[in-house]
Amino acid sequence: MASMKKIAIFDPTDRIESQKGLLIKEMFERIQGVETEIFAIKYNHFPVKDNDLTLDLIDSDLEANGENSTIGQGHLPTVESIFEYLTKEFDGLVIGGNNDHEVDDDEQEYFKVYYPLINKLLSIDYPLLGICWGAQSLMRAIEGDKRLTKMTMVGKEPQIGILKFSIIKENPLFDEIANEFFSTSYHMVCFILDKSAKIICSRDGYWDNQAFQYKNKRCFGLQFHPEHTLKSSNKLFEKFKNMSDEEKREFVNAKLIFDNESPDEDVGTKIATNFIRIAGNSSFESIPTLI
């Protein structure tokens, strides 16, 4: 990792540099020699050359909590222009969390370029790492809506908290990570895998699909949140506790569960380190396939 590595972060939330995007940025920038840049793709802020960028970012009033401002909707750049710039300027792509899994493609303009872009990047084995919605969106891009479902539809109650996870397949993404570790969980939707992707991490007795590698490509998905620290996790859980009854409707039967007092924060750093190493391995096919 002697040369500088640049990682693009797709943040599909409603704010400029949301907490979700910033936490991923912090996770990667703990590693010496790594730079990141966040793109607010929900507002068509994709990585393209300046002279191709038709997006007009409009700062509005700060949110009541003083976190970040929202931005105005711009025009869609082409898949080709995003692909060209992304592959030229960045060594890999990380996709963070969002709540657009149940929205029709027609209702989210950025889906029109996001899903074709993911498949175009997959075709050249470009390094991809999806976290929570990011992982779900990778499977949706590859296999369509049939690979996403609510936890309640598979007979599982959503679990929010700090949970214990188990690595069930040796994989370069989990190098130097203990076979069992604790991380933050916060999701109501899950991905369903077929033989094209292999489960590499699970939660015993609950839901196996907690992490995958797609075929033998440099494409990985994590359902849990390794980017979260104890402080950010507690903020997330407090927000859940303080939700109105109406807001909690989508969290049907969700339970707060704590297998440990805090997440293993070094797991996030190790996953980021391993992803950077994988991204720099042009002969990744030499690593034994999981299929």
From TrEMBL:
InterPro entries in UniProt: ChyE-like, Class_I_gatase-like, GATASE
SUPFAM superfamilies the record matches: Class I glutamine amidotransferase-like
Which part of the chain is the Glutamine amidotransferase domain?
A: 83-237
Give the CC-aspect GO terms: cytosol
Source organism, top-level taxon: Eukaryota
In terms of PANTHER family, this protein maps to: GLUTAMINE AMIDOTRANSFERASE YLR126C-RELATED (PTHR42695)
- Protein name, as recorded: Glutamine amidotransferase domain-containing protein
Native organism: Acrasis kona
